[in-house]
Amino acid sequence: MGIRKWGNHLVVVPEENMVVAMTSGAYGNGYAHARAYFILGKIFQALKEK
């Protein structure tokens, strides 16, 4: 099925006892997906450095 690029994301990280829910108010703008993935990337980077 792969990753779908919609505005809403729900990410579950059981090892960290963490759930991240993101919604986007930038529908129709070209930057919405890139911004969401940038934020998620920063979260995962911080977890990796923990």
Tell me what the structure shows:
With 50 residues, this protein is α+β, with helices and mostly antiparallel strands. 36% of the residues lie in helices and 20% in strands. The protein has one helix and two strands. It has a two-stranded antiparallel ribbon. It is elongated and about 35 Å long. The model has no long low-confidence stretch (mean pLDDT 80).
The tally of beta strands, per DSSP, is: 2
N to C succession of SSEs: EEH
Question: What's the shape?
Answer: elongated
The separation of the N and C termini measures: 31 Å
The side-by-side strand order for the widest beta sheet comes to 1-2
Mean pLDDT: 80
Oligomeric description of these chains: single chain
Tell me the helix content: 25-40%
- Determine Rg (CA atoms, Å): 12 Å
Largest sheet: 2 strands, antiparallel
Share of β-strand residues: 15-25%
Uncertain segments of ≥5 residues (pLDDT<50)? none
Helix run count: 1
Alpha-beta content class: alpha+beta
Condensed summary:
The protein has 50 residues and is an alpha+beta fold.
Keywords:
50 residues, alpha+beta, two-stranded antiparallel sheet, 1 helix, 2 strands, 20% strand, elongated
